[in-house]
Amino acid sequence: MTPEEVLEQRRQYLIDRDFEGFVSLFAEDAVLELPFAVQGLPDRLVGREAIREFSLQAAAHAIAIIDLRTVQLHRTTDPEVVILELVTEARHTTTDVPFQATCIQVFRIQDGKIKLFRDYVGAHSVPDLN
């Protein structure tokens, strides 16, 4: 799969709340980094199993993703690296209040698998996750 196809599959898995599918997109030795992580979230996960555990815990949060809207996709001189300007449209499932979270995401996608996912999310736009 091309990087764009991988990212579209990721989008669909997250909208569908298919966290096992989401995790399957990562390489065994993948790294997920959240440099601006909100309180209580790790800033770095190493390995598909750590990403799986984190993703399954995230599934319990009161957040439902409605869409991941790409504002702009930037190709780099390295064909494995893409940068997304993204808006996550979601709602808090307990209060049913919708919200948007903006972010910039950097991916290294090699042989159809995510090797690196660095998410610079605007943490101020994410409501309390409980």
What are the key terms here?
SnoaL-like; alpha+beta; 6 strands
Plain-language structure description:
The protein has 3 helices and 6 strands, in the order ααββαββββ. The protein has a single domain (3-121), classed as Nuclear Transport Factor 2, Chain: A. It has helices at residues 3-15, 19-24, 48-58; strands at 26-33, 44-46, 63-75, 81-92, 97-110, 113-121. It starts with a helix and ends in a 9-residue tail after the last strand. InterPro entries: NTF2-like_dom_sf, SnoaL-like. Residues 16-115 form the SnoaL-like domain.
Question: TL;DR of this structure?
Answer:
The protein has 130 residues and is α+β, with helices and mostly antiparallel strands. Helix content is 23%, strand content 45%.
